[in-house]
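Submission sheet (multi-component)
Chains listed below:
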Amino acid sequence: MKVKTTVNGQVYERETVPYKTLLHFIREEIGLTGTKEGCAAGECGACTVILNGKPVNSCLVLAVEANDAVIETVEGEGAGNELSDLQAAFERHHATQCGFCTPGMLMSIRDLLRRHPKPTVEQIKAGIEGNFCRCTGYVQVIEAVLDATGQSAKKGELKHVS
Amino acid sequence: MNRAFDYRAATSFSEALGWLAEMGSNARPLAGGTDLLVNVRAGLMTPTCVIDLKPIPEITTLSFDEGEGLLIGAGVTINEIIESEVIQQQYPLLAICAHQLASHQVRNRATVVGNIVNASPCADMAPPLLCLQAEIEIQGNDGARWVPCATFFTGAKQTILKPGELVSRIRVPAAMQGAKGGYKKLKRIQGHDLGIVGVALAALDSAVHIAVSSAAATPVLVKPFSRTDDLGTVVAAVCEAISPIDDVRCTKDYRLFMAETYVKRLWQEVVA
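Outcome: structure written.
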């Protein structure tokens, strides 16, 4: 079946089998491998992309369901070799360790910042509820989001901040 | 990679019903896909064709009026319930429970109807719909019929749906608007997790409705109570109505204990 999507502003038209997930379509047919497959069951959020303005687990969407859709992936974050402000904050705060959850985490946070441009710690926690990170313990991620939005953690709010 | 299946996009219920009749149990309807695609991947379902209901225009219906009450089409997602002003104002229990279902990403795809049709004992949307006296519209090749949500579940992952039938809408009666409510769900973490036991309570005028998830083969609606009922009697009736088991998540005794605790807390918070 033919699937036409706009990914990070560029239109792609590809022939695909009807049972291919959007995740595999993005990785294998379009060749954007930033989006990762973790659990493949909607639990871990590593495959999060923004589909028509809403973050979804791309492992639970068929590519054919995304025909005519507008998709954002981690490759749309930076410009060329320039990191986005959010990615740069992740780097400063060591919010990435193994990095496997990071592309999905960034997509969830990108959506969070559209809904809450200056999110509170509680809003950040709720925003990344569907993204598992087994390295950082999340504190560095929260610090990075606060930093990227011109905020700093209040005393005692996070374990890292004295 | 998924095992192979075909995909058809239905543009009307009659088209979807025709395909279901033609292909029988080899076809599966697709809405949010958050249960279907997980089951297909795990080999628990092996459809040769999935029938996408999302192109059917009326399934996005989410409307309220004094006559019909609240209508929720088969394509309405969990996050659309949370974001709906009329639901926040008139049926807050639906939004409270919706917020407890899975993660933000899943809630952007998962539908209320899908949660009900999947018929898990831990379905988060079942307790509020039971408490709010919801009705389910079933479409078959013989036409449509409405059934009370309280008669819809017949066992774990089992419903009264016959082969070839679909759920098209859910109706919450206008008479239940303004019901105050609460939902307590025991889980291991504050975020995305399946329920270990859950209790929902809705109170309107003198009536109090309680429903329990993850404590029997189906979500359970307990007989209605009155605000003036003795709390000890209410707790005893709830514990009598459920039949929790020991499993990997929790023991039967702990489920009973937490169901009792949640009934008491909800009564204090919502009714007292």
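Remark: Chain A touches chain B at residues 1, 17-21, 24, 40-43, 45, 48, 51, 54-57, 59-62, 64-65, 108, 111, 125-127, 129-130 (CB under 8 Å).
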